[in-house]
Amino acid sequence: MKAIVCVKQVPDTSGVVAVKEDGTMDRAAMATITNHDDLAAVEAALELKDATGCEVVVVSMGPPPAEGMLRELLAMGADKAVLVSAREFGGSDTYATSQILAAAIKKIGVEQDDVVFCGRQAIDGDTAQVGPQIAEKLHLPQVSYAADVKMEGNALTVKRLLEDGYMMLKVQTPCLITCVKELNTPRYMSVPGIFECYSKPLEVFNYDTLKDDELIDLDTIGLKGSPTNVYKSFSPPVKGAGMMLEGADKATVDQLVGILDGKHII
Ligand SMILES: Cc1cc2nc3c(=O)[nH]c(=O)nc-3n(C[C@H](O)[C@H](O)[C@H](O)COP(=O)(O)OP(=O)(O)OC[C@H]3O[C@@H](n4cnc5c(N)ncnc54)[C@H](O)[C@@H]3O)c2cc1C
Asked: Which residue has the least CA distance to atom 36 on ligand 1?
């Protein structure tokens, strides 16, 4: 049994977003972090490893510096890492990204007891499309928004987060689960893990590695194979400080009406 976890290195958008002249995000100019939901997915896989002894394989598609993030995940306890990286894969939208990641997961191999974990959503693209698209392309049953995951035989019981409650679902392996950050608290890298992480296997899958898969075609991957393109990225304008009016009397209502009238809102 193994758990394969898709992890994305994302720009730290908590600060100022750098934008290139063409309106797209200047990823190279921004600090990077591991996507929060994906850390929850890694922790879920590591908890499955603690319970069953399964192998944990972390996979990321991105430029070569994403290796640093993968080494950190190996230091947390993952057994193997795969970096999916090639010029041909650059500029992929969610459709093309899921084509490539699905081909990479097929190459790693999905067997009867295996579970593929993704984060629910990446904080930069923010679409929550990649996990469900991978499941469709691999013909796997999927459960999204997982807030709790338990293994029972060859099935997982998943608590699925809804806006106003939970749904309990049982899903047979092999399956794909997308995880929300409320699922758990990711563990820290351990000191022995940091020592071991450079001796654990990290494989690079490039275009040649995957090109024989039916999902990999230059017309369905990369910028050319992406049906959608980013038109513009920008930080929303900073709003001015608000004004609070205290009181529930006629004078306060008159004051509010005066302010709105003065701004030509009413
Ligand atoms: C219309 C459009 C056009 C784009 N064009 C470009 C472009 O030209 N150049 C560019 O650099 N980017 C581009 N992007 C961004 C890039 O395509 C997305 O980052 C990528 O498709 C993942 O989508 P997402 O961030 O919405 O992920 P989500 O669907 O929100 O991610 C869900 C989960 O899928 C997994 N996942 C997603 N991406 C990866 C990954 N790379 N590796 C491993 N796991 C992953 C993670 O588990 C993640 O939590 C574009 C995005 C869109 C929506």
From this structure: 8
The alpha carbon of 142 and the centre of ligand 1 are apart by a number of angstroms equal to 19
Place of tokens 């904080």: 123
Residue 199 is encoded by which pair of tokens?
């001796």
The 10s digit of each residue's pLDDT in 8-23 is 999 987 777 777 776 6
Domain-located, residue 256: no
The Cα–Cα gap between 118 and 132 comes to: 9
Is residue 246 included in any domain, yes or no?
no
Domain count, the chain: 1
143: in domain: yes
CATH code, domain with 46: 3.40.50.620
Enumerate residues lining ligand 1, CB below 6 A.
6-8, 35, 37-38, 60-62, 91-94, 97, 101, 118-119, 121-122, 124-131, 223, 228-230
Tell whether 240 is covered by a domain.
no
* Atom 45, ligand 1: residue with shortest CA distance: 8
pTM here is: 0.87
Which of 138, 158, 141, 140 is CA-nearest to residue 149?
158
How do residues 232-253 score in pLDDT, each as one tens digit? 777 777 788 888 999 989 999 9
Which residues span the domain enclosing 132? 2-225
